[in-house]
Amino acid sequence: MVEVLVSRKKLRRETMGLLRANVLITILVMTMTIVELMAFGGKVHANGHHASDTGKIRGSIEILRPRQGDLVEEGSLIVEWRVRRAEENVDETQQVVIMVNGLVVHVSPAENGLVSMQEVRAGVYLHVHAFLARYEEEEGITNVASASSVECKIISKERVKQDSQVQVEREPPYEYTPYVPANRSGEQPGREPVIIFTFHCNRPDLVLLQHRALSNFILDKFKMIVINDAQSEDTRSSIANASIQVGADHFLTPDYFDHSDPSYVVGKVVTWAVQEIALARYNDSVIFLLEGDLFPIAKFSPLHFIKGYNIAGTQQGRRHAKTGFLLRYLWVGFLVVDLRGLPNKHLLNMVPTVVGDVGGDTASSLHHFFDASPEIKVRRVLHTSHIHDESKNKDVLPKEALDKYQDSFRIEIYERSFLHYGSASNWKIGRSFEYFNSAEDFLPSKTSFVFWFVDSAINGSLKLDDFDFVFEHGTWENAIGSTFILGLFRSVSPVSKPGGGGR
Superkingdom, according to UniProt (predicted)? Predict the structure, then answer.
């Protein structure tokens, strides 16, 4: 056992909050006698297969402590990890990189170990990443072979004592929002093709996977348009080539967009695509705005889904705690809009804004569109939110997928028909969005799982059950900031529970 004492680090206030640390690093050097590679340890190529790009064994890393969702008592936080490597043909340049709330707090050789952070105060939410990668001060994190991540909260000693004395049983609510499948074609004759805008900034392999899934599962004739917002010339070229390969139209975003704030630039990019391309060329069509890391995994008809409505999306509600003012808008990642006869199209603005002293994120400016257009009909897109133990929603996954799933993947399912990878642009990695739009795959195990899931759905070997789990928090009726939040809804039998909404 080797112990290294590291002097107090200056931790950025905006990323670490109340966390102040003297870091005591204890590196446990262990000889691995068994070669045990994780199921998804390799680099994913555009065809969905994974392999090493160097010919060397890439290995894997796993966070042992803390666990996802842990409530950690204030005072100290121990991050412990395990590295699995082969005894031969090993990449000796690999390192363990530990990142807490975007700050790299530890770098060491690729061995098992732990880092202990002292003077950790209550009230801090921590996002812990462990990478098996290469790290240099100038280049940052590169060549990620494996990654693991967890989220936890630091709580007071008094809170720990209270929680140990109180046993709370959560009674499920009596009602739920039912799914209404949109899996019939031919619902709106003469309205094809649907114009599907997909937005990509760093992953040409996702362009190929997305097109493959769209071609297999979208029931209406469609035209795919790739909006290319990559920042580096190499990545722009790679995304352009992938677009040409699948026969999609391709547009480069203006080079004057400011990429320092992901929420703002995503809003600018989507607004530009709607105002400058959709309204100029497809003003009478149904358009489908789809994030680059959203993939259909079941039959879906946008024309069936939007029939009888003007616009459909995931509701975002933010309510002023004192005045009760409701800021309402829709998430731009999954947005279906029937432009035929739609009023106030000039107000289809997706940038963040503040209205009535209530701030929102991307597309909150849509509040002005809804405020000016009370007659339009809005269909709510239903989803599971992030799938993990804390949300009690992992049973929505088929057993074959659940056996391979890790809580840190935090994928989402939309309308029982789309898988959302989530944060594939790497905006959550590092400090001040330093890896935003990076072409590096920081989560290779997650990428391999998503490719496996989508390809298995395409070839028919994997199918979602008709679950009825809907995430209600943050909708217009259960807005963030409301006094009463209904939270998570599950389906229940209308016979066994009064007021049930069973189908």
Answer: Eukaryota
CA torsion angle for 408, 413, 419, 420 (degrees, to 10)? Answer: -60
The CATH architecture assigned to 194-471 reads: Alpha-Beta Complex (3.90)
Distance CA 325, CA 329 (A): 13
At 363-418, the pLDDT tens digits run 999 999 999 999 999 999 999 999 998 888 999 999 999 999 998 899 999 999 99
The pTM assigned to this predicted structure is: 0.78
Tokens of 494: 């209308």
The full length of the chain comes to: 503
Under 8 Å between Cβ of 379 and 306 = yes
Strand pairing report for 43-44 and 50-51: antiparallel
Six token digits for residue 285: 């069509």
Contact 61, 96 (CB under 8 A): yes
Task: Give buried/exposed letters for 267-293 (b at 16+ CB in 10 A, else e).
Answer: bbbbbbbbeebbbeebeebbbbbbbbb
DSSP 354-375: EETTEE-STTTTHHHHHHH-TT
Question: pLDDT for 295-331, tens place per residue?
Answer: 999 999 999 999 999 999 999 999 998 999 999 999 9
Burial of 390 (0-12, 13-18, 19+ CB in 10 A): exposed
Tokens linked to 34: 């068994």
List C-alpha distances in Å: 144 to 28, 443, 491.
22, 8, 41
Which tokens belong to 20? Answer: 């102040």
Domain boundaries, the chain: 2-159, 194-471
Domain 2-159 has CATH 3.30.360.10: no
